[in-house]
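Predict structure. Chain length: 429.
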Amino acid sequence: MKRLLEAELIYGRLLEIAEPHLIARYNKALGGFGLKPTGLARFSIDMTGFSPEVAHELGDRDYLDPNRVNRRFIILTPAQAELPVVHTSFSNTAALMHEFFNANSRAINAVTIKDTLYGEIEDSVSMVEDIDDLLSINEVRFRVLSAEDMLGKATELRELIDRLKKVPNAWADDPMLERMVELARTTGDIRQNALVPDELVFRHQAFWANHFGGVYVFLDEKTTTVICDPSVPGFRRSRPWQVSYIAITDHARIYDFLATTRRLQLPQASWVQESGLFQHRADMVVRGLINDVDPGADLTNADRIWLQTWIHRNAALVARDGLYPFLQEMSRAIAATGSIKMQEIAPENRFLLVRAAPDHPDRWLVNQLISQLVPRDFVSRFVFDKQGFYGAYERYGEKFREYVVATLTGTYLSDKAAFRHKLYGLKEE
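Prediction complete.
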């Protein structure tokens, strides 16, 4: 993983924490979770406060994700709202954190001047033992505490102010007035600064969970659809009257579900030719084949002429694999007719030709699922399914790792927004 770290392809865009007062607050939050304080003089954090360095020090990557449910968070600064989430068991953790930051920005800005917010994203279950446990999570509640008890002091001051206003002769209670002054020295004027978060309950939308090897849950008005390995506990047994179950290997049913619910953008010349998606995936297929045959091949400097020469020399292998000729044929078909009759395409090849509908709320989750079903496209896997990408990367040889890092650095990392818009039609959110 050293090469990924140096290229900022793993744990990239994190916020460095080196100020002693912030480290002290972080340690108080760790203590609130019953964890040992960090002895590090500097470390980096993501949106949730997860630190890869602290995780390594504690010997526990799940120190903020116990039982991989009820995710913990530590907020040292409002700047965390702009950071990624680099370690999570649920794909929508980042979305929930964004909602929390947006709904409570005033309180977060005020509290983190002097204090740190920490707590848990509480689900309705404490352990995930089967699919029904995942389906039981309809909404989450943010349970919020503060390291210096700023929230508790603000609440106490608010109660004392109310007492001063409502109780006759309360103004003559000197100990109460002294306590109010003492609290105000810490909290400031709470009539001007909202210190207590206003919105703490949020809906749990469609998501992917990394339990049981990965489970996709899609929510529609009257039905819930689960896509995963059929060996997962509860598959076809949990709430069969309201849940549709699809095996992750059943490409035909997955495609039909995504297409009929308008979660897919089907191939049309208007976007296919502009995006270059077919050519991108054809290139990924060829380079994957080369790596299969010769793991020591230097692909980093392989130009188009070199690739075409390799294809001609290995025509039988390319034909036997079939994906490169298929994508070339589809490129010709889309140029000639403007569309493709998807029902005439073998189910296992359909996902090479589609992308998530860019305007659908589940577009990121759908693109994650597509990237899992098109494993040779490591670029899409990195963009939408980083855990799946890192797992695949571990199995690559050194030369292919070098090529993968060079490709991602030279394409996606150079301009993420433009790359996502061109290839997947996604606009910045």
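Summary: Residues 150-187 form one domain.
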